[in-house]
Amino acid sequence: MSRFSRQESIISTEVINAIEVAIIGIGAVGREVARTLACNGVGQITMYDFDIVEEHNCTTQGYYEADVGRPKVDCTKEELLRINSKLKVDAVNDRWRPNKNKKFDGVFFCVDSLDMRATLFNYFQEATKFIADSRIGGEQIRLLNVFDDASRAHYPTTITNDAEAYADGCHIPMIKHSAGVAANMLVQSFIQSLKGGAFLEKDRLFSLPSSDLYPIN
């Protein structure tokens, strides 16, 4: 049985292996997005983050004690290559900057700042086929997908300014669980987009203690 034989029933290894994605921000959600993409056989991942691992990141973002003091992108690259040694990983230990020579099949916004999300969206809305974003406030998770004209028009309406954002989202007890759920659902949406996107929703909000999942119009 091959490494990705179970995923083959969902999407062919040949298709997923030809995919290149970008993850901007390698915190709680971004690190788990990267691991989940690697587990599903994505061929190439480019990660952007200028931060280093601090001690509290071990419990909130899934880093290890030995990672403390090292760049997040370097630690995550090592983790991804443990999952799949053939994976191509470009770990950019710096802020994201526009680069017209880099083309991606999907981009995951995993940054803290809403202002930065707006900047990223303005750049990538026409430059990539699929954009995924999550907003976590304690146990509440909001998932946003940009994949067609309607979702492209909707996304800017979800951007407020940073002063209005939920400031404690990354530091509450449930964050690691919330981030894992959000990351896996974002990757699931991305794979659905590769299959035609028949079941994709542009905006979903739900709470971890509840199984309710509903779209926002």
Write up what this structure looks like:
By secondary structure, this protein is of the alpha/beta class. 34% of the residues lie in helices and 18% in strands. The protein is built from 8 helices and 8 strands; from the N terminus they run H-H-E-H-E-H-H-E-E-H-E-E-H-H-E-E. The chain has helices at residues 5-8, 13-17, 28-39, 57-60, 72-83, 114-124, 149-154, 175-194, and strands at residues 20-24, 44-48, 88-92, 106-109, 131-137, 140-146, 203-207, 214-215. An 8-stranded mixed beta sheet has the order 3-2-1-4-5-6-7-8, with helices on both faces. It starts with a helix and ends with a strand. The mean pLDDT is 88.
Summary?
With 217 residues, the protein is α/β, with parallel strands linked by helices. It contains eight helices and eight strands, in the order H-H-E-H-E-H-H-E-E-H-E-E-H-H-E-E. An eight-stranded mixed beta sheet has the order 3-2-1-4-5-6-7-8, sandwiched between helices.
| Main sheet summary | 8 strands, mixed
Helix content: 25-40%
The value of Rg in angstroms is 16 Å
N→C terminal distance:
44 Å
Order of helices and strands: HHEHEHHEEHEEHHEE
Structural class of the secondary structure composition? alpha/beta
Number of strands: 8
Nearest-integer average pLDDT: 88
Placed side by side, the strands forming the largest sheet appear as 3-2-1-4-5-6-7-8
Q: Spans with pLDDT under 50 lasting ≥5 residues? A: none
